[in-house]
Amino acid sequence: MAKATTIKIKLLSTADTGYFYVTRKNSRTMTDKMVKRKYDPIARKHVDFREAKIK
């Protein structure tokens, strides 16, 4: 069976609050780590979220 093109990833907050989003990305076109600027409700501001592995 073929390998899936989209994989699930966890976007972990860089504000060290432990808050995260779960999203998908195309692993063939986006080979580097994903970084998004999103809202962290614990820190109550927009911060960078970096890609981490889902355990």
UniProtKB/TrEMBL annotation:
SUPFAM superfamilies on file: Zn-binding ribosomal proteins (SSF57829)
The keyword Ribonucleoprotein belongs to this UniProt entry's keyword annotation: yes
Annotated InterPro entries: Ribosomal_bL33, Ribosomal_bL33_CS, Ribosomal_bL33_sf, Ribosomal_zn-bd
Gene3D superfamilies membership: Ribosomal protein L33 (2.20.28.120)
A GO BP entry: translation
Highest taxon in the source lineage: Bacteria
GO terms of molecular function: structural constituent of ribosome
Keywords tagged on the record: Ribonucleoprotein, Ribosomal protein
Keyword Ribosomal protein: yes
Gene Ontology CC annotations of this record: cytosolic large ribosomal subunit
Family to which this protein belongs: Belongs to the bacterial ribosomal protein bL33 family.
Entry protein name: Large ribosomal subunit protein bL33
Underlying gene: rpmG
